[in-house]
């Protein structure tokens, strides 16, 4: 492969990696928000995402 082809390949790979990172971060946030909603529904109390995560960790 030529240097140009290698650079283009790396550029596409980096762009794909960045998209994957953004998707993973968005999914992580959505899961955390869903967890907080579940805890809120189960406890009848309004809790933050952080509190819901702490409760989950304590149950493990």
* CA gyration radius, whole angstroms: 20 Å
Helix proportion of residues, in percent?
Answer: over 70%
Number of discrete domains: 1
Number of strands: 0
Distance between the termini: 51 Å
Structural category is mainly alpha
* Overall average residue pLDDT: 87
Largest sheet: none
Unreliable residue stretches: none
Description of the structure:
With 60 residues, the chain is an all-alpha fold. It has one domain. Helix content is 87%, strand content 0%. It has two helices and no strands. α1 packs across α2. The chain is rod-shaped and about 60 Å long. The mean pLDDT is 87.
Summarize the SSE layout with pairings.
Blueprint: H1 3-43, H2 49-59
Helix pairs in contact: 1-2
Provide a quick synopsis of the model:
The chain has 60 residues and is an all-alpha fold. Helix content is 87%, strand content 0%.
Keywords for this entry:
60 residues, mainly alpha, rod-shaped
């Amino acid at each position: 492969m030529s240097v140009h082809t290698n650079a283009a390949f790396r550029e596409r790979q980096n762009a794909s990696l960045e998209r994957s990172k953004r998707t993973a971060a968005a999914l992580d946030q959505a899961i955390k928000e869903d967890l907080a909603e579940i805890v809120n529904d189960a406890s009848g109390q309004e809790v933050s995402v952080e509190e819901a995560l702490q409760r989950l960790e304590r149950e493990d």
